[in-house]
Design goal:
Blueprint lengths: L7 E3 L2 E3 L6 E5 L6 E6 L3 H20 L2 H17 L1 H12 L3 H21 L6 E4 L5 E9 L3 E4 L7 H13 L3 E4 L5 H13 L7 E3 L5 H10 L5 E5 L2 H13 L3 E5 L4 E5 L5 H13 L9 E7 L3 H13 L19 H16 L3 E4 L14 E4 L16 E7 L2 H9 L3 E2 L1 E5 L3 H10 L4 E4 L14 E2 L2 E2 L12 E9 L2
Parallel strand pairs: 7-8, 7-10, 8-9, 10-11, 12-13, 12-18, 13-16, 15-16, 18-19
Antiparallel strand pairs: 1-2, 3-4, 5-6, 6-22, 11-21, 14-15, 17-20
Bound molecules: NADP nicotinamide-adenine-dinucleotide phosphate.
NADP nicotinamide-adenine-dinucleotide phosphate binds next to helix 7 and helix 8.
Amino acid sequence: MTDTPTQLFIGGAWVDAADGATMPVDDPATGEILCHVADAGPKDAKLAEDAAVQAQEEWARTAPRVRSEILRRAYEIIIERTDELAHLMTSEMGKPLAEARGEVAYAAEFFRWFSEEAVRIDGGLATLPDGRNRMLLSRRPVGPCLLITPWNFPLAMGTRKIGPAVAAGCTMVLKPAPQTPLSSLALAAILKEAGLPDGVLNVVTTSHAGEVCEPLLRGGRIRKLSFTGSTAIGQLLLAQSAQAVVRTSMELGGNAPFIVFEDADLDKAVDGAMVAKMRNMGEACTAANRFFVHRSVVGEFGRRLAERMGALVVGPGTRDGVDVGPLIDRTGRAKVEELVADAVERGAQVLVGGRTPEGPGCFYPPTVLSGVDPASRLMDTEIFGPVAAILTFDDEDEVIRRANDTPWGLVGYVFTEGLDRALRVSERLEVGMVGLNTGLVSNPAAPFGGVKQSGLGREGGRVGIDEFLEYQYLAVPVQ
Ligand code: NAP
């Protein structure tokens, strides 16, 4: 902790906010203040933008191999410092150390993946159908980007954007979530050490997100917004981006259905449910929010899931043997409590959990609710906590209709041993990703993203870099 930077990172230098303001970073396991970091205002954001704009042209001309090797070095440094970074993440965000280590590996992998993509940006040359003209296609970086990230994956949400931006030759202003600024600052220090030129990445930590970001989006110099966060804020930022016609990528909220058919292997389904629900204490956009279980297996599935959930150890993420850390803050926990209370009032049975423990920290126990009324608020709200809400269904058409009956479409989980059914149901689900007999879809080599109000664009995979590139077409007559 002592070496972690706490200042703004602008033009390759660590600086205080112009007015000297700072903001506290809390440990969600104790509620105590860990440290203070610089609290940027609009003036600081402008300086960060200036640095990004100034660095853009030269950075765009840098050899792809050079950009690739910076990412590769940063990947290696992250992996070497896994323990240090995991402790930092756990202290500011709460997730158990084992999960934090997993996130460090996941986050680093985006750098390795995009180090490999940086040298594969291609173009094209073709004779057009009329035979009189050639088309020469090249790809160039979109320009200075504003990257806005949430608190739930403090390292990976940053690397998932910075990796392709560096690979494509874009400069950046990164604004991390105020709850978890330390991981982003540590990442900036690593990239500097790996040789990233000054001004290519700038980090502004702030408690005034709106005041800091809006002028950048409306000002016309930022050419790209890549945002991960809630749908409500995504909608606001899309409107702000419209004025200067800023290109956008939006990774927004989810409301994932988790469907267990009567022919499912229940061992796989319960294992999958534990991952899809409990990864990151349920604080994930990919978290299973609605469990639809066929009437013939709902009793058995609920009993087995409740047994597994009830056996998890809740406590501070730094303690050995802990499976479930605290939620991010009191507001997040209060929302989970209200959603559970509403479901119970409407007749849900609590199979396990459901009671907030006494004492410090933002802990909430793993909870399973069965017989949930479809009118319950948690059916159309991201729970963002360790609560599995089980509903019953009778046939395939019905469950697909109910699963799709939401404005979101990030991910769905399908458990069945029938290949035809698996493919048929997956094709009919209105989602960007499907986990077939698995509760984990995230992988840096696969395109991550949603449809409907879950977002626009994809991160990761072969297409992740496209979000940061523009085509230029040269018309060349055939002489
Ligand atoms: P959030 O409230 O939308 O905040 C996300 C980020 O946006 C934070 O850095 C936040 O800073 C910033 N922000 C808020 N208002 C802003 C404004 N007016 N202008 C510029 N920036 C602004 O979301 P969150 O609570 O941090 O994260 C949870 C949400 O993220 C969930 O909905 C989850 O599903 C979604 N998520 C999606 C994905 C995905 O890939 N689809 C991945 C992870 C999380 P402040 O906190 O200071 O406002």
